[in-house]
Amino acid sequence: MKVHSLVIAISACMITINTPAQTRDVCLEAGINVPMSQKAGTGSDIMLGVNYGQFYYNGLGFRTGIQYSASTAGINDVFGVPIAFAYRTPSKTTAERFRTGASGARDALNYHSPYGNGSDAASFIGGFLINLFSEMEFFAGITPGYVAGPSESPSKASWGSSWQYWEDSWVEKKHDFSLTLDAGMSLNYSIWRFDIKLTPAVHYNLTKNYIYHVSSGENEKVITKDNPIPIRWFFTINGGLAFRF
């Protein structure tokens, strides 16, 4: 009986030792969401979010969370739940971080201009900081969500000698439910258990939630009315602070 107990105890220890190491983190982030459409006259929108990530010894992992935008392409109150598979590169040592940072600063300085000017210092510092990251993360996934706000009201602009020419433009909300395909990367700057994160990404809206409309005319007469244009591509860039545990 004692032998069996000893074997079970040793096996449990071996399983514990061989269990892949895990790294978990919780991240608060904020950034901007930019519709990638030349036709749509919509600007960038503020995004806020919180997400949870878990990574294993081989760098593979996943992220999920919740995000909110007060306005997206002119439509108010948009919520999303990103779900993504991710890969995190091995961590660089402090010496490696400073070596790549110095190399990036030198390359940025040489690329910027062979002549000395006031921008050289900014190029040097920017090149150093952008290459000082400790790890990179790559991710791809989906974001199901809910678009709560109504369609945008038409916005009329007038011009001409007597303001006789006008143009109406607005964004129509086609559906409440939304779904996007997402892909991006993140640069992690580690300080003890904290990560400062810089995350650019692109998103493709599968559900055609945002439809851009424009029409123009003279006085009360409509001269042209463009075909509705779906706004499907978005670019986001977020900054975040994560805590690992």
Mean pLDDT: 81
- Overall, the morphology is globular
- Order of helix and strand elements from N to C terminus: HEEEEEHHEEEEEEEEE
User: What gap, in angstroms, lies between the N and C termini?
Assistant: 39 Å
Share of helix, binned? 10-25%
Number of helices: 3
Proper CATH architecture of the domain at 23-90 and 135-148 and 175-209 and 231-244 = Beta Barrel
Low-pLDDT sequence parts: 6-20
Relative strand content: over 45%
Query: What's the CATH C level of the domain at 23-90 and 135-148 and 175-209 and 231-244?
Result: Mainly Beta
Salient structural properties:
9-stranded antiparallel β-sheet; 245 residues; 54% strand; 3 helices; Porin; 5-stranded antiparallel β-sheet; alpha+beta; 14 strands
Outline the fold blueprint.
Layout: H1 2-18, E1 22-35, E2 45-56, E3 60-72, E4 75-80, E5 83-88, H2 94-112, H3 120-130, E6 135-147, E7 155-159, E8 165-173, E9 177-191, E10 194-205, E11 210-218, E12 221-225, E13 229-230, E14 233-244
Antiparallel strand pairs: 1-2, 1-14, 2-3, 3-4, 3-5, 4-6, 5-6, 6-9, 7-8, 8-11, 9-10, 10-14, 11-12, 11-13
Helix pairs in contact: 2-3
Q: How would you sum up this structure, described in words?
A:
- 19% of the residues lie in helices and 54% in strands.
- The relative contact order is 0.18.
- It is globular and about 70 Å long.
- Helix 2 packs antiparallel against helix 3.
- The protein is an alpha+beta fold.
- Strands 1, 2, 3, 4, 5, 6, 9, 10 and 14 form a 9-stranded antiparallel β-sheet that branches.
